[in-house]
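Changelog entry

Holo records now carry the ligand SMILES as an explicit input line rather than a separate metadata file. Below, a converted record for flavin-adenine dinucleotide, shown in the new format.
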Amino acid sequence: MSKPAWIIVGAGFTGAVVAERIASVLDERVLVVDRRDHIAGNAYDYRGENGLLIHKYGPHIFHTNSKRVWDYLSRFTEWRNYFHKVLGHIDGQLVPVPFNLNSIAQLFPSGMADRLSEKLVARYGFGTKVPILKMRADADEDLKFLSDYVYRKVFETYTLKQWELRPEELDPSVSARVPVHVSRDDRYFQDSYQAMPVDGYTAMFRKILNHQNISVELSTNYKDVCGDFKSARVIYTGPIDEYFNYSHGQLPYRSLQFKHVPYSQEFAFPVGTVNYPNEFDFTRVTETKHLTGDRGPLSLLTQEYPEAYVPGTNEPYYPIPTTATSEALRPYRNLARELDGQVWFAGRLGDYAYYNMDQACARAIALFDKQIAPVRQNGGRGQASRLA
Ligand SMILES: Cc1cc2nc3c(=O)[nH]c(=O)nc-3n(C[C@H](O)[C@H](O)[C@H](O)COP(=O)(O)OP(=O)(O)OC[C@H]3O[C@@H](n4cnc5c(N)ncnc54)[C@H](O)[C@@H]3O)c2cc1C
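Structure line, unchanged by the conversion:
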């Protein structure tokens, strides 16, 4: 392969989708490098010893309201319908999470449950999703009792474990991800498209990257090879602070340890995931068979243990969205702007944004449509602000 016109750093959703767009639409050569020994980024899955598909970096459930993203990915995979359900381990019971009218019916005596449910419906409307911090501001005594209960039992300790922060310290978009759902719909997501790639994510990524203009080099750190490709344009989906050698300090990330534990019976749980908001060290345990549709006499449970991120020792999984971190990001965005037209930053780590897979995919498509393709059509002179 001749020298690539583009280097893409990271073979996750963002990198793979931009690579595919440049290779197919612009018909230009792309080299994708990833320092891991596999493609698919955090969505990577593989078959373990007992033949079951394992999500190496924790459970990944695909859901989106974007027809564009759905249609795009459907070119590379067939899907199996899957509606994710989560139970929370609360007061010794397993109840639906996000907390909903069924959870209330299960946890409280029937008269009280009816009263709380009626008040919720009257106050917010059936089918609505109410952020817990909003509900806590409600003056009604019953709703105050309920929101305090949910806050203490579902949010407070889970958030402390997951982020080492109190819910109020995080950007409201984070706690809004798990609202109280005024409904009897036990599904974790309500998006129009919810499904799992039928042969897994890695198989889908193989197809996305399977193009004559794309080559992939794994176990390759960009820092070690960038000198060989000085004239190439770069799409960088690794941590933005690392790219600039932490010149403005380290951005904080949250990390996790995953334990994949064999289970010697067909199923351990009735649903995909059980959350442990309280006394356990792990935050949640997922029985991946529910997600993947694998069947057979054995099962596998993935436990997630949150921990601080320490560069060089573990992975930066989650950017931590707070007011302080958006301030800390600003100087890096300014530095990125100076590289306009030569290096583009995108993705969960490049943008330092808490993206789901569909959002990473949409970001990659938009980056290509709005910034990469126009720049190429102008012969490299058209410039736009690269960061959202
Ligand atoms: C535990 C967990 C569960 C999740 N569950 C879901 C879910 O259920 N549904 C959902 O929609 N989303 C989920 N997500 C989010 C999803 O993982 C991300 O949206 C997606 O991975 C973002 O893709 P990306 O390409 O931006 O980043 P990544 O997948 O992180 O890919 C970035 C890649 O860049 C590589 N890289 C970084 N620096 C360098 C370098 N210097 N040189 C070479 N390579 C480099 C990394 O090795 C990595 O492979 C989850 C995330 C986590 C952590």
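Spot-checked after migration. The first strand starts at residue 6 and ends at 9. The two ends are 33 Å apart (CA to CA).
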